[in-house]
Amino acid sequence: MRRRDLLRCGAAAAVAVGVVYPSAGHEKPAAVRLGVIGVGGRGTHLLGLALKQGVEVPALCDINEANLARAVGLVEKARDGRRPEAYSRGPTDYRRMLARDDLQAVLIATPMQLHAPMAIDALRAGKQVFSEVAAAITLDECWGLVRAAEETGKMYMLGENCCYWPHVMTILCMVRKGVFGDLTYAECGYVHDCRPIKFNTDGSLTWRGELARDYTGNLYPTHSLGPVAHWLGINRGDRMASLVAMSTKAVGLHDWASRRFPEGHLARQVRFKVGDSTTVLIRTAKGAVIDLRYDVISARPHPTTTYYSLQGLRASYESRTESIWLDGRSASYKWEPLDNYAKEFEHPLWARWRAEAEGAGHLGGDFFVIREFLQAARTAGPSPIDACDAAAWSSIMPLSAKSIAEGGAPQEIPDFTRGKWETRTA
Ligand SMILES: NC(=O)c1ccc[n+]([C@@H]2O[C@H](COP(=O)([O-])OP(=O)(O)OC[C@H]3O[C@@H](n4cnc5c(N)ncnc54)[C@H](O)[C@@H]3O)[C@@H](O)[C@H]2O)c1
Fold this sequence. Notes:
By secondary structure, the protein is α/β, with parallel strands linked by helices. The protein folds into 2 domains: about 5-160, NAD(P)-binding Rossmann-like Domain (Rossmann fold, 3-Layer(aba) Sandwich); about 160-350 and about 385-410, 2-Layer Sandwich (Dihydrodipicolinate Reductase, domain 2), CATH 3.30.360. About 35% of the residues lie in helices and about 20% in strands. The chain starts with a helix and ends in a 14-residue tail after the last strand. Mean pLDDT is about 95; it is low at about 1-10 and about 10-25. Nicotinamide-adenine-dinucleotide binds near residues 40 and 61.
């Protein structure tokens, strides 16, 4: 299924679902030959899903020997004992793996700070790329990614699994069928207490802790922004034009460390840059506003980590209560459960793959990111979430930091489509 099918709904898209190979014959397609860089928690989970979907894995790379050995074992088991080659000779050994000519595609699930350099190297080595979120940390990296995809013509996909959640795709269907009318406002947030995973047990910082120490702004924008960007047609009919950002003081991580580590411990002396809670307001070229919140530090339970709301001229949606109101259809003053419309507006991807997706992780989103990536890789089709999308969504991080540093001053968001945002469909 191509991006236009992800964005489209109804009968036409339903026909496209399940059309896996353009050759239309019944011959078994060649398996995608996939290498993985980074087999920690996330990379190992995605590797498992990819193996279930029939990939060949000739090579794996990680600098952590234990993680690498675990992943090698996983592949060996799935491939009847055939052992993938393991690359672990240091932080740039992935380049040796990229030089192999039997790899068609690469999945990157390393710490966020490494995504863009590794993705750019992989594209330039002629590989198709799946990158974990976010795609990049600086504006230079965002542009580097766009240029590498343009110049090599290789497919790049950001693995934003939240875009494939069932409720998110139901709303996408409703938007595409005009139920909301013109869209004016969206609210979204990633609010997830991640304090424990900023520190190792000895109090040293994990890569997530280093990110919080070294950067400010919204450091994880895509889980919240991705679904909203799809609803609003960002880079396909509209685009994010400017933003302003504000952040609270940075106190939560220091407080957390102070209550866990003894006086004089290094963990208590780290000065974290990122504010506990950050709010970004984004205005689109067509006049919609997105209110985007990020908070991974404040103390709170998190039955869900993200929330979304959407306002159109004729409908309103609230994910926190899973409710919707349709002008002319819902009773006056009464929210309805979104479930009332789940069948009528079920996305074709969910209609086709529900049994396989459920239980695959993150409400089925993990199944679909892998499936859609492999689909695009096999067919050399367009990416459902391409380098322009990845760059635009990820640029919120450096631009929000700049706005905060300048007292909330507006920042222009670059047009990564180079003027094509109004007419692009794929
Ligand atoms: N989409 C989601 O829902 C989701 C969920 C969790 C994590 N993530 C993302 O996945 C990525 C990985 O997260 P994680 O929780 O698995 O982290 P992790 O720390 O468990 O794993 C990262 C792995 O990368 C390896 N690594 C580090 N530097 C390397 C290098 N130079 N070369 C090769 N390997 C290297 C580490 O040794 C480790 O095994 C992050 O970007 C994170 O944001 C996404």
